[in-house]
From TrEMBL:
Name of the protein this chain belongs to: Alkylation response protein AidB-like acyl-CoA dehydrogenase
Every Acyl-CoA oxidase/dehydrogenase middle domain range: 108-192
Cited SUPFAM superfamilies: Acyl-CoA dehydrogenase C-terminal domain-like (SSF47203), Acyl-CoA dehydrogenase NM domain-like (SSF56645)
Record bears the keyword Flavoprotein: yes
Organism for this UniProt entry: Kutzneria kofuensis
Recorded family membership: Belongs to the acyl-CoA dehydrogenase family.
Domain of life: Bacteria
Gene3D superfamilies noted in UniProt: Acyl-CoA dehydrogenase/oxidase, N-terminal domain (1.10.540.10), Butyryl-CoA Dehydrogenase, subunit A, domain 2 (2.40.110.10), Butyryl-CoA Dehydrogenase, subunit A, domain 3 (1.20.140.10)
Record GO cellular component, one term: plasma membrane
Domain Acyl-CoA dehydrogenase/oxidase C-terminal: 214-371
């Protein structure tokens, strides 16, 4: 760990941060192996332990170093990168990881469909082989940041005659293909942060397949597990984010305080701190490999807590909390929640219990995989997908 911090200091001495072009600077950080230190040498890492990452990140933050493009991290960093690292070929890793890290190329996730969300394995988007390429047709929905994305991770059905989990394959889709049509979906906040995506005759080279044909579900599971940890257990300082915003208002606006709200704020502050420490333990546990079902518990708590905290924030602001400042239609480039007003945050957090797996589904996972309770009855796992009622 000390060696790594010394490496960061040496890197900073050779690559001044003041006035640096962020993309070039981050590219140099990637080349030095200081992007994701647990990734292999040549792919942004040094083959170090995953637990060393935090010290490296903190050293760069303290030096006011350029940070990755805020539009890129969530899906690119949290979901695409670990999946490419685990299932990608050498060529795929070389092609995709560096521009993903520098933020030159933003990623989105083409999983959900109008008829396949919680039960993702029922998805209907087809990929049909044509020589060295696949031709993809279908419709995806709720695709966050598709309007700025260069690449997408995509799950499609390659064999409808097999049961639903077996006939899927996983691809990297070029969002600039003429067959990709991205249309905004306006959310309760007024913004269109996500989209519908129509895929008509989209051509994907076989070289952009991740994992074996028919093994898309296994690859998707890696993405989904990482998604829950990314959303529910991201790195945070004490009083960061939403609890920080409400605590700040509490301190700065004593005229808004009431005794009942004080009690609730304290309880939520303690819950936020417990989640932060649990998330920290989960991240350290990841040093051992792929995230386990504990990520689902962190994501569930994250959603419940965010909704309670933003509800308290609106109440604390009284009438002011009910005034919604800006309802113009926008297509944001990043997920900037902290700088928005209490009303925006309250409405946006409603989506936390849906995105990345609904709270009901996460409770099922906890019941089944952590508490070892009897599984939900499933009648459709052995039936060919084409014969399932839809
Ligand atoms: C803000 C936001 C961003 C998103 N971004 C993306 C993205 O970038 N890419 C992407 O692919 N998807 C994205 N999604 C989609 C998200 O993953 C799905 O909405 C989610 O998986 C739920 O699927 P569904 O909407 O089809 O609901 P359904 O699966 O139809 O579920 C409806 C309700 O029934 C409940 N339910 C369903 N099955 C069960 C069960 N077996 N037991 C108990 N309850 C059950 C659900 O919990 C839910 O309350 C996003 C969603 C949101 C809100």
């Amino acid at each position: 760990m000390t060696d790594l911090v010394a490496k960061v200091e040496q890197f900073l001495a050779e690559h001044p941060t003041a006035g640096a072009d962020p993309v070039e600077w981050l590219g140099a950080r990637f080349d030095a192996g200081l992007a994701w230190v647990h990734f292999p040498v040549g792919l942004g890492g040094l083959g170090a332990s995953r637990s060393a990452q935090q010290a490296v990140d903190e050293a760069f933050l303290a030096a006011n170093a350029p940070q990755p493009n805020p539009a890129a991290p969530v899906i690119g960093y949290g979901m695409a990168a670990p999946t490419i690292l685990k299932f990608g070929t050498d060529e795929q890793k070389q092609r995709f990881l560096r521009p993903l890290y520098t933020g030159e190329e933003v990623w989105c996730q083409l999983f959900s469909e109008p008829g396949a969300g919680s039960d993702l394995a029922t998805l209907a988007t087809r990929a049909v082989r044509d020589g060295d390429e696949w031709i993809v047709d279908g419709q995806k929905v709720w695709t966050t940041m598709a309007h700025v994305a260069r690449w997408a991770i995509l799950v499609a059905r390659t064999d409808p005659s097999l049961p639903k989990h077996q006939g899927l394959s996983y691809f990297v889709c070029d969002m600039t293909d003429p067959g990709v049509d991205v249309r905004p979906l306006r959310q309760i906040t007024g913004e269109a942060e996500f989209n519908e995506v129509f895929l008509s005759g989209v051509r994907i080279p076989d070289a952009h397949r991740l994992g074996a044909v028919g093994e898309g579900w296994k690859v998707a599971t890696t993405t989904l597990m990482n998604e829950r940890v990314t959303i529910g257990a991201h790195a945070a300082e004490r009083e960061d984010g939403l609890i920080g915003a409400v605590a700040k208002t509490w301190r700065e606006r004593p005229e808004l305080r009431t005794p009942g709200l004080h009690d609730r704020l304290l309880r939520l502050w303690v819950d936020a701190e417990a989640l932060r420490l649990t998330a920290e333990r989960l991240r350290q546990g990841l040093a051992a490999g792929q995230p386990g079902p504990e990520g689902s518990a962190a994501k569930l708590t994250f959603a419940t807590l965010n909704q309670a905290v933003t509800g308290l924030d609106v109440e604390l602001h009284g009438e002011e909390g009910l005034a919604y400042s800006d309802w113009t239609m926008r297509r944001p480039k990043d997920a900037d929640w902290a700088s928005r007003d209490a009303g925006f945050r309250y409405l946006r957090m409603k989506g936390n219990s849906i995105e990345g797996g609904t709270s009901e589904i996460l409770r099922n996972i906890i019941a089944d995989r952590i508490l070892q309770l009897p599984k939900e009855p499933r009648s459709d796992v052995d039936i060919p997908w084409k014969d399932l009622p839809r």
